[in-house]
Design a protein that fits this description.
About 40% of the residues lie in helices and about 15% in strands. It contains 13 helices and 12 strands. Helix 1 (about 20-30) packs antiparallel against helix 8 (about 245-260).
Length: about 400
């Protein structure tokens, strides 16, 4: 067994940052620890003010003129995506009965794509928009599918497998030109790159992608947007998402967000430089490893995701051999880790199955030092060479 493990699966779940851990500890030692923020007594009101403070911090970090009241706390990105797709589509149809179609990209997270059968059961037609070979969903591709029957369009801000940043500002304008609402899943992009949200109606977030706790997320949705609640049993979150909120987790989420945005550009530059060095080494001539997209390391990619393939090999074998050497990576979305088939994202990009089966996603933030990335590169190159029967 390795003496230490190098964790390189931050896109699945990032370790909690110091700021979030400190916020949790401060909450636990405070007098509002355990108080219900919906109670009318003094401690309840104090807990509610603390919750609203977290809401303000998240809205400020989001930008795009989102208000604190627009932020709905959820259990994570999956629930936020579910609430957005069901709630916004049904709300738009309630307002205009012609709006019976939903447009989503073919590279969305499973928490959106798995909603499609249920949307159809509720009377919606669903249209999928494909990315180009580099994994970019263009505004023109979305525009071709728009019409007066579209209730909602949803395209993620950055892909969770490839790290490719999507032009959501342009796509939102294309959706609005047809009178449709627009939602983006920004769970991977939030806190990593600047977001163009001025024309976006709703945004999904997940705390554990930025060093916050697992089990809390948010859907920021503008007050003018129709949203039909999808669960019932209380008036919390202005009746849009019932259930007693976790003040502890909300404060930790907000603390992690503040830490990310304290020096967003500087951190991105540091991480991007490490990603560029890792990509150059892995995908050099004769390595047998190729990048999944030709989009260069830069603004078009999330700084901390390196997506590569070893054509002819299978990712499961590579992941297990890397694990034996103390390196923790994944093949793609952790929510699909039980699947032995090729990634739906790479398939949608037109990558042949035999190549996509050898994909790996390496993800990290500024807390992973260059030495660990260099050691990982040496291990992967050695493993790939051994699997191919070559020497390196």
């Amino acid at each position: 067994m390795p003496q230490r493990y190098v964790y390189l699966d931050y896109a699945a779940s990032a370790p909690m940052c110091e700021e979030a851990l400190r916020a949790e500890a401060d909450y636990e030692s405070s007098r509002i620890a355990g108080a219900n923020p919906n109670s009318l007594h003094t401690l309840g009101r104090e807990a509610d003010r603390a919750l609203d403070g977290a809401r303000r911090d998240l809205a400020r970090c989001l930008g795009g003129s989102f208000r604190p009241a627009d932020v709905i706390f959820t259990s994570g990105g999956t629930e936020s995506n579910n609430l957005a797709l069901f709630g916004m589509a049904m709300g738009a149809r309630d307002r205009d009965r012609r709006r019976t179609r939903v447009v989503v990209s073919a590279i969305e997270h499973d928490s959106e794509l798995d909603v499609i059968p249920a949307l159809r059961d509720r009377g919606f037609e669903v249209s999928l928009v494909s990315p180009d070979r580099d994994g970019v969903v263009t505004a023109d591709a979305v525009r071709e599918l728009m019409g007066i029957d579209v209730a909602l369009a949803s395209v993620m801000a950055a892909n969770n497998e490839t790290g490719i940043v999507q032009p959501v500002g342009q796509i939102a304008k294309a959706a609005h030109a047809a009178g449709a609402l627009f939602h983006t899943d920004a769970a991977q992009a939030f806190g990593k790159v600047p977001l163009d949200l001025a024309n976006v109606d709703a945004v999904s977030l997940g705390a554990h992608k930025i060093g916050g706790p697992v089990g809390i997320g948010a859907l920021a949705i503008r007050g003018r947007c129709p949203l039909r609640p999808q669960s019932f049993g209380g008036g919390q979150e202005q009746g849009r998402r019932p259930g007693t909120q976790s003040v502890r987790d909300a404060l930790a989420f907000a603390a992690a967000a503040r830490a990310c945005f304290a020096d967003l550009d500087g951190t991105a530059r540091t991480v991007r430089n490490r990603a560029a060095r890792l990509t150059e080494r892995l995908c050099g001539e004769g390595t047998g490893i190729v990048a999944t997209s030709n989009v260069p390391v830069g603004p078009g990619r999330l700084p901390g995701i390196v997506s590569v393939m070893a054509p002819g090999l299978d990712s499961e074998t590579l992941i297990l051999k890397l694990d034996q050497e103390g390196f923790e990576v994944s093949a793609g979305s952790a929510c699909s880790s039980g699947s032995l088939d090729a990634s739906h994202v790479l398939t949608a990009m037109g990558i042949p199955r035999e190549q996509a089966l050898g994909s790996l996603r390496v993800s990290f933030d500024q807390r992973v030092p260059q030495d660990d990335l260099d050691a990982f590169a040496s291990a992967l190159l050695r493993i790939v060479a051994a699997e191919r029967g070559t020497t390196r």
